[in-house]
Design goal:
Layout (H helix, E strand, L loop, with lengths): L3 H24 L3 E7 L6 H16 L8 E7 L4 H13 L5 E4 L1 H10 L5 E4 L20 E3 L5 H14 L5 E7 L4 H15 L3 E7 L5 H12 L1
Parallel strand pairs: 1-2, 1-3, 3-4, 4-5, 6-7
Helix pairs in contact: 1-2, 3-4, 5-6
Length: about 220
């Protein structure tokens, strides 16, 4: 689970929220920020993360109902729907959008052009075209990437160690997420050195999951 309170304190606040706080104190204006999440409804982990986000913002003087409104959109996994909701947030308007994950980040960038975007858990910011470099991303996007090649390689190593006789692994991935090409290549590279074969099955929408699992089981037999 993402520690959104730490994320806001360390990343979003210095880059985007603290300048807005100064403006809010000067004008007495209530600011809106958008939150774009690629799920249709909140899970328990999301509820905890949202409370952490609110707590982190309160620590910086931002209080919902006083000088802040958080406009949350549960966008699901459909990229077009995500873009539509990003445009809806821009039209309110919001001062910025916090977007969770690669597809939501891309949807926020494309659906709300020119609006500052804070990336939460971007998979491969450079590969996805979000950042020119990690040191100097440029453009209207900033934020963090919580996954890297080292982490993915270690996950494959742990799986191999837990199941020593394992020879083949089928990976289910969201076909709409462009970062998954980077993830799969990183895992495959480490798998080859361990004598493992990785197969990939893409799942484009939520309704395809059962069929993808069935195909994975059939490939294993």
């Amino acid at each position: 689970m993402i520690n959104w309170r730490a994320f806001v304190t360390l990343i979003a606040a210095p880059c985007l929220l603290e300048p807005l706080a100064v403006r809010a104190q000067q004008s007495g204006k209530v600011f809106r920020i958008g939150l774009l999440v690629p799920r249709t409804e909140p899970e328990r982990a999301d509820q905890i993360a949202l409370e952490s986000l609110r707590t982190g913002l309160r620590d910086l003087g931002w209080v919902e109902g006083k000088n802040l409104v958080i406009e949350t959109r549960w966008a699901g996994v459909n990229p077009q729907r995500q873009r539509e909701l990003a445009a809806e947030l821009q039209a309110l308007p919001v001062a910025l959008i916090l977007a969770l994950g690669t597809t939501a980040i891309r949807a926020a960038r494309d659906g709300a052009p020119g609006l500052p975007i804070v990336m939460i858990s971007a998979g491969d910011p450079m590969g996805a075209g979000f950042a020119a470099t990690l040191a100097r991303p440029g453009g209207d996007l900033t934020g963090t990437s919580l996954l890297g090649e080292e982490v993915l390689a270690k996950q494959v190593e742990l799986l191999s160690a837990a199941v020593p006789k394992l020879k083949k692994v089928t990976v289910l991935m969201n076909g709409a997420n462009p970062a998954n090409g980077f993830f799969f290549d990183a895992m495959s590279s480490r798998a080859r050195t361990l004598g493992l074969r990785l197969d990939r099955i893409d799942v484009a929408v939520e309704g395809e999951l059962d069929g993808a699992i069935a195909r994975a089981k059939a490939a294993r037999s």
